[in-house]
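Side project, low priority. Logging it here so it doesn't get lost.
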Amino acid sequence: MTGDTIRTQTITGGCLCGALRYEARGAPAYAGFCYCRDCRRASGSGSIGFMGFPASEITITGEAVTHALELRDGRVAERNRCACCGSLVYGGIVGRAESHTVYAGSLDDPSVFKPTIAIFLSERAPWAVVPEGLLCFDALPRS
């Protein structure tokens, strides 16, 4: 090492009106598209782009409205929208979750979204396109 400071990537984003913001430090642990019925309905689209970060590496500011939904497989999806404009911004309860998912549509710089996986393809709408080159799973991959 030469003593130079190693720069850590910072990824920022937030809602439409700017009242709910996040700053994530470092590269995401994972990034991809979810095609499950619940994410399609929550996003109003054929899939939702997501990036995951450890809770210790993300700072969230502003007021969010959390909606918790028990999924068919027993997991609970906790999605957070801006309390002012209603934009879908991130997943997980601040202070309780070990990690948070930020939604790619909320990124300040959309070019930082580099998806590698597609999940829940078994629930994909027939018109939803899956980008080439992704590692595809019919359900949630096991770690």
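Brief comment: Residues 1 and 86 are 46 Å apart (CA to CA).
Revisit when time allows.
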